[in-house]
Amino acid sequence: MNIPKLIRIVLISVSLIGLAALGYFIVYPWHETANMRHKLETEFAETWDYTEAFKLLSSGDERVSRILAGALLASQDKAVKWWLKKAREGDVDAQYILAICYLSGFGGKISPAEAVKWFRKAAEQGHLNAQFELADHYRSGWGVKKDETEVEKWRSKAVEGFREAAERGIVSAQVSHAFQQEDRNEKRKWLLKAAEQGDLSAYIFLAYVASKDEDRVEMFKWIRKAAEQGSIEAQLSLGNSYAQGRDVEQDHAEAVKWYRKVAEQKSFAFTPFTSINVKWYHSTPRHHRAQMLLGQCYEEGKGVEKNIAEALKWYRRAAEYKQYPDQKAIDAIKRLEALEKKGSE
User: Fold this and answer.
1) Can you name the residues that pair with 273 across neighbouring β-strands?
2) 270 by DSSP, 3-state: which?
3) How confident is the model at residue 339 (pLDDT cuts 50, 70, 90)?
4) Which is more confidently placed, 244 or 86?
5) CB within 10 Å: which end of the chain, N or C, has fewer?
6) pLDDT (0 to 100) of residue 268
7) Whole-angstrom distance between the N-terminal and C-terminal Cα of the chain?
């Protein structure tokens, strides 16, 4: 299976604020209801099902994912205990999630061997992602001795399972199946099937495929679709395209529009990607980058009326993020505050 090295690195090297890397991997073509959204926004009950919460992270609704991620981060120990209890009872999803926790350190413990143990239990129950991950661990020797026979055994099961699920119309499996295809046209065909059903990750990977084909028009089309569906990464990219006149006629007002969408996000900003039917979310300072860029627009009067007070407001927001403080924003604040002070003298 040929998967771009960058994608595999990204899938494993995921980090959460203040924690070791955490990959949220899930096979679950399911979308939450309006009532569930309301529940997530108003309560995080003691009796809540953490496995269902985890599944919601892959729903494609970034607002819901931010609420959930914050809740899960605030109760890591409780969540891991829940998954361990359910995993021991034979819950296949909990077994898979628990393996990811042991890989990432979510809950405080990193143990590749324990991860392999729970991947195997889930794989033996037919969990496709677990089968794929187990094959990858046997290939790399991470947490288990290398064994090419086991690699082929579990890889074959996963590939066949993804193919069958894709043909049944399961969107997440269609994306996964696409990345198992060597032929670029076959890859694109399955991504398009998922895109026709509105899958955000399919939009993102169609943009990626188009970029590899050096088809900038096609790439821009899918980035725009992803941005319109709420992908923060795509929104920032679209804003940059309009600001720089890259792949589209330069339009600073449009750039401001997209920067603002990202800049107004709250502390947790999570972006979904899918590969080999794996969905994950990672914390990102992208909204702070957009705040910096929006501040520049107000300072320079590009796309909006020049307004130093507004520029300072956005620069300050960009600079206040403790983990990734934007040094350019800090410098801009000092510069503008010095000008304000000089003007008042």
Assistant:
1) 280
2) strand
3) confident
4) 244
5) C
6) 40
7) 68
For residue 34, pLDDT over 70 is answered with no
Of 312, 318, 313, nearest to 236 by C-alpha is 318
CA angle, corner 143, sides to 10 and 145, nearest 5?
A: 120
Query: Which domains does the chain carry?
Result: 5-226+265-284 (1.25.40), 288-345 (no CATH)
- How far apart (Å, rounded) are the C-alpha atoms in residues 105 and 166? 32
Query: What is residue 166's predicted lDDT score, i.e. its pLDDT?
Result: 93
Q: DSSP for 25-42, please give it.
A: ---------HHHHHHHHH
What's the whole-model pTM score?
A: 0.66
Q: Residues 319, 312: contact at Cβ < 8 Å? A: no
Other C-beta atoms lying within 10 Å of the C-beta of residue 246: 12
Distance CA 143, CA 43 (A): 38
Token couple for 114 = 């324990």
Q: Where are the alpha helices (DSSP H) in 141-183?
A: 148-167, 171-178
Q: For 234-267, what is each residue's pLDDT tens digit?
A: 999 999 999 999 999 999 999 999 999 999 875 4
Q: What is the DSSP string of 8-70?
A: HHHHHS-B-TTSSB------------HHHHHHHHH---TT--HHHHHHHTTSS-HHHHHHHHH
